[in-house]
Amino acid sequence: MKRFLSAVLAGMMALSLMAGCSSGGDETTNEPADTGDTTTTESTSEGLFPAVPKEELKVGVIHITDPAEGTGYTYTHDLGIQGMQKELGLDDSQIVRKNNVSDTDATAIRTALEECVEEGCQVIFATSWGYMDYVEEIAEEYPDVLFAHGTGNKSNGSNFINYFGKINQARYLSGIAAGMKTESNMIGYVAAQNNENGEVTSGIDAFAMGVESVNPDAKVYVKVTGAWFDPEGEGQAAKALIDMGCDVIAQHCDTANPATEAENAGVYAVGYNSDMAEKAPGATLTSVMWDWSVFYTKAVEDVINGTWTGENYFGSMQDGLVQLAPCSDLCAEGTAEKIQEVKDQILSGEWDIFDGKTEYEDNQGQTHTLKAEEYGTCNWYYKNVEVA
After folding, report:
1. What does pTM read for this prediction?
2. Fewest CB atoms within 10 A around its CB: which of 37, 225, 273, 277?
C-alpha cells in the first residue's frame, strides 16, 4: 500500500510539472536532454521526494568492472563514491556496490538493480552507458526509488535522471599536448564506439580540434574496439595505431592498456578517467579526468535534504567535475603554458568549445554546430580525423 501511495503521489507531481512547464520535463526521449546550467546555480524548485534522514540512507552503485582495477573507468567512479561518503559522513554499511555487472547482460543488470532496491537503497547510481534502458524500466517499476544513470540520454524528469559533463573541455586541452608533442604528425585514438555514439565522437572531435589549434599538419587516426570495456582489444588497437606510425596514443575506453602499450613501444600517451601516469609514467603526457565526487555529493545531499528536483546534471571544469592532469616532463616545451592560456579562457567563460554557434568542418567537407550538452547528437568526425 505504501508503494502504491508513493506511486500515486509521484504521478500527481509529474502531472503538476507538465501543467506548469511546456518543455515536458518528464518525457523520456532518445535525444540528449538539455541540461542547461543546472550545475552552476542552486535550484529553487521544491524537491519531488521526501527527505531521507542521513542515518537511514542507503546508496546503491552498479559498476561494469571492479574498482580494484586501479586506474580506469570504474575506479574513477568509485573514487567519486568514496569522496561523497567521506564528505557526507556515511558509514560503509550505507554503500551497496554491485561490481562486474556486464552492460551487455540484461539479466545481470536487472538483478543488480533489483537487489539494490531490495536492500533498501533510496538512490541508485548506474555508471555505464549500456545500463540505460534497464534503469529506465526499473525506475518506472519503483517510482519511490531514485535512479541516476551515468552518460546516456534518457531521463523522466522525476525519479530517473542522467549525469555527465563537458569532458570535451579537457579533451581539447589534451589535444594541445598531443599536437605539440608529435613528430610524425600521426596521433592515434583508441575509441570504444564508432561515430554512431555521440559521447565518443564529440570527444574525438574536441581532441582533434585541440591538436589542430597548435599543429594544423597533424592527423588523428581512430581505431574502434566496439566495446566500452575490452582490455585485450584496447591494447591491440593501440598496437595497430603505433605500427601505422602514430607516436602519441589517446583514448576513450576503460583501461590503461593504450597507455601501457604506448610506453612499451617508446611512444607517448594521453590518458583518460584518472591520471595514467600511475600506470605508464614513461609515456603519459597528461590525462583527461573526472572527479565524480562533485556530482555524487550533490545528488546524495539532495536526497538527504529533500531537494531532488529530477533535473539532469551536466558539470564542467568550472565546477570541478572535469579536470586535466598536470603536464608531465615528457611534454614539449611550452605545452603547460599554452594549455593554461586556453584553460583560463574556458574557466572565465570567455571561450568554450561546442558553443552551438561556431561552425566546424567535418572530414567529408560538411559544416556543423554543436552545443556541449547535446553531445549525443554528434555523429561526424572533425576534418583532421581519419578512421584507421
Report:
1. 0.86
2. 37
Count each helix (H run) and each strand (E run) in the chain, helices first. 10, 15
Handedness of CA 356, 32, 164, 233 (dihedral sign): negative
Strands (E), 37-104: 59-62, 95-98
**Three cell numbers at 112?**
543488480
Cα 1 from Cα 3, distance rounded (Å): 5
Extract the C-alpha cell encoding 300: 546524495
Closest by CA to 217, choosing from 239, 186, 190, is 186
Question: Which bin fits 354, alpha (ψ -120 to 50), beta or left (φ > 0)?
Answer: left
pLDDT per residue as tens digits for the range 148-190:
999 888 999 999 999 999 999 999 999 999 999 999 999 999 9
Please choose, from the candidates 137, 60, 129, 146, the residue with its C-alpha nearest in 3D space to the C-alpha of residue 99.
60
Q: What is the spatial distance between Cα 255 and Cα 68, in angstroms, rounded to a whole number?
A: 12
Neighbouring C-beta atoms of residue 37, cutoff 10 Å: 9
β partners of residue 160: 147
Give the CB-side neighbour count of residue 112, counting CA atoms within 13 A: 27
Residues 189, 204 contacting (CB under 8 angstroms):
yes
Q: Which residue has the cell 552551438?
A: 356
User: Residue 299: what residue type?
Assistant: A
Q: List, edge to edge, every strand of the sheet that includes 59-62.
A: 95-98, 59-62, 123-126, 146-150, 160-165, 313-315
Give residue for cell 579536470.
323
Helix axes 257-265, 231-244, angle to 10 degrees: 40
pLDDT, tens digit, for every residue of 238-283?
999 999 999 999 999 989 999 999 999 999 999 999 999 999 999 9
Give the Cα separation of 48 and 116 in Å (integer): 21
Q: What is the chain's length?
A: 388
**Partners of residue 164 on adjacent β-strands:** 314
**Residue pair 202/210 in contact by the 8 Å Cβ criterion:** no
User: Nearest-5° angle of CA 347, CA 72, CA 168?
Assistant: 30
- Within 10 angstroms of residue 38's Cβ, the number of other Cβ atoms is 17
Task: Compute CA distances 84 → 61, 209, 294, 297, 314, whole Å.
Answer: 12, 34, 8, 5, 18
Would you call 72 helix, strand, or coil by DSSP?
Answer: coil
Q: String of b and e for 241-252 (b: at least 16 CB within 10 Å)?
A: bbeeebbbbbbb
